Amino acid sequence: MMKSPFYLALAASLALSQVAISTASAETSAAHFRSAPAQTFSQADLQRYGLTPEQAARGVELQRQGYHVQVMTREEAQRVYGGQMSMNTWIIIGVVALIVIAVAVSHN
Fold it and tell me: CA–CA separation, 15 vs 11, rounded Å?
């Protein structure tokens, strides 16, 4: 029974890797993305979309610097970015995997 922690760690790391693979390979339907042509927004345009005057001024400044500003509703943003895991989530998964492996190795 000395090898059971090793098999437990192996099973846990395989389960974690399956979660990571399925999340990383998930594809979003093209219907979720906007197909409107790119345009430059004025500060007034951005304020009509609900941005504060400060946010609108920042958006205009970013456009002047060459950045692409995309305006979308909260619902569109949720569809586009809702399924992505944050970097913190990946770090937590990695740390848990390392702890499981370290525990398994220390019991051998």
Answer: 6
Tens digits of residue pLDDT in 58-97: 999 999 998 888 777 777 777 766 666 677 778 888 888 8
pTM recorded for the entire structure = 0.40
Which residue shows structure tokens 């990571």?
Answer: 20
Q: Reduced to 3 states, what is the DSSP secondary structure of residue 82?
A: coil
Identify the DSSP state of 38. P
Q: Is 70 helix (H, G, I), strand (E, B) or coil?
A: coil
**Token pair 């339907």: residue:** 29
- What one-letter code names the amino acid at 41? F
- What 79-87 contacts at long range (C-beta under 8 Å, 24+ apart), as own/partner pairs, is 79/28, 79/32, 80/28, 80/32, 80/33, 83/26, 83/28, 85/23
Separation between Cα atoms, residue 104 and residue 96, nearest integer Å = 12
Compute the residue count for the chain: 108
DSSP conformation class of 97: H
**11 close to 66: Cβ distance less than 8 angstroms:** no
